[in-house]
Design goal:
The protein has a domain at about 35-60. The two termini are about 20 Å apart. Helix content is about 50%, strand content about 0%. The chain has helices spanning about 15-30, 35-55.
């Protein structure tokens, strides 16, 4: 059976590094200065999440649980 995916939880006791990454990823989505640079940063954050945390969508919206 597959392990359940981990997601970012703003209520959890996260490290300062993860809190900074989630803030940067949220700000990058609203930045219009240089699209290619912003996209490169976003992809790098997602690649880090995939490698270190096992879930590429770790910083995206957590899906709703059943029940």
């Amino acid at each position: 059976m597959r392990d359940q995916l981990k997601w970012y939880d703003d209520k959890a006791d996260n490290s300062a590094w993860l809190d900074a990454l989630v803030e940067l990823r949220q700000r990058a989505a609203r930045e219009g200065y240089c699209y290619q640079h912003v996209q490169a940063i976003t992809v790098a954050i997602d690649q880090y999440a995939e490698k270190a945390l096992g879930n590429r969508d770790y910083f995206l919206n957590k899906p709703y649980g059943v029940g």
